[in-house]
Amino acid sequence: MLIIDGSFGEGGGQILRTTIALSSLLLKPVRVINIRAKRRNPGLQREGLV
User: Fold this and answer.
1) Pick the residue with more confidence: 12 or 7?
2) Distances (CA, A) of 33 to 1, 17, 39
3) Is 41 part of a structural domain of the chain?
4) pLDDT band with cut points at 50, 70 and 90 for residue 11
5) Alpha carbon distance 28, 25 (integer Å)
6) How many structural domains does the chain have?
7) Higher pLDDT, 8 or 34
8) String of b and e for 11-40 (b: at least 16 CB within 10 Å)?
9) Which of 18, 20, 34, 37 is the 20 to 30 Å CA partner of 1?
10) Domain interval for residue 24
11) Contacts of 15 by beta carbon, 8 Å cutoff, 6+ apart
12) Which three-class secondary structure state does DSSP give residue 30?
């Protein structure tokens, strides 16, 4: 299993999309921890739902 630390760098949606692509190419499960950790509202948020 690949474990990706989402608090490193930008740590938002792009790291999640890249991780999912990497997982599908390598055929390995992944776990993303600390996604958006440095933001005011950490964690995944609903966006663009109008």
Assistant:
1) 7
2) 13, 14, 14
3) no
4) low
5) 8
6) 1
7) 34
8) bbeebbeebeeebeeeeeeeebeebbeeee
9) 37
10) 2-33
11) 4, 6, 9, 32, 35
12) strand
Residues 16, 38: Cα–Cα separation, whole Å:
15
Q: Give the tokens for residue 10.
A: 């930008």
Residue 6 burial (CB count, 10 A) = 21
Residue 42 resides in a domain: no
User: Do the domain assignments include residue 45?
Assistant: no
- Two tokens at 42? 């950490």
The residues near 29 (Cβ < 8 Å, ≥ 6 apart) are 1, 2, 23
CB atoms within 10 A of CB 10: 10
- Does 10 reside within a domain? yes
